[in-house]
Amino acid sequence: MLLVQDWMTRNLVTLSPEASVAEALTLCRGRRIRHIPILEERRLVGIVSDRDLRDASPALGDPERTSALQKIQVGDVMTREVITADPQDPIENAAQVMYEHKINALPVVDEGSSVAEEELLGIVTSSDVMRALVMLAGLPEAGCRIEVQVPNRTGILAEIVGEIHDLEVDIVSVLSDPDRRSGKRTMVFQLATIDPSSVMQSLKRAGYEVSWASA
After folding, report:
1. How many structural domains comprise the chain?
2. CATH number for the domain including 81?
3. How far does CA 135 lie from the centroid of its chain?
4. Could you list the residue range(s) of the whole structural domain that residue 196 is in?
5. Which residues of the chain have pLDDT under 50?
6. What is the spatial distance between Cα 11 and Cα 30, in angstroms, rounded to a whole number?
7. pTM of the complete model
8. 185 DSSP β-pair partners
9. CATH number of the domain that 207 lies in?
């Protein structure tokens, strides 16, 4: 299982609510980051994104832009109701939370402690999640992918794995996409072989619909 703690950034850049938007923008550009957790007395009280900072900034060319950026505080533009992750959460849970809430980063805190004592351990971003899901899909591995259309019923995965195992072909990863309308399921197998012909023929003889997609 891939956990949030395996993919989060631990060396964090943080600010206090009293920091200026100018300072936050400088940090985002200099460190090439898009989110900054906001701490007050070491406690997480908000998060600010580069979009928040840009939205709060006067238009380019405004003669008052520089002074305004110095006057506006991060606490005025940050998100206060912060959605967080636990370091022991599976990375796919973090992906689901980001998708459902339409956000691109989750501060990682020890959710077992009290709110007053919880410690900011890191931050996991949508880019981190994407790298982890690519790893879960087995895409860095050499080989090929096949797609198998199957009925959506109990035990079907074990049947297909058994067919592939009998041919002594290693399975790197399996993805599953259910189609509730048809009652069928598409299973994508990443195989440790460059020629899946024997696997495909065996599965077709067993009555499955199989197609080959390059990895």
Report:
1. 2
2. 3.10.580.10
3. 11
4. 144-213
5. 114-115, 215
6. 15
7. 0.73
8. 150, 178
9. 3.30.70.260
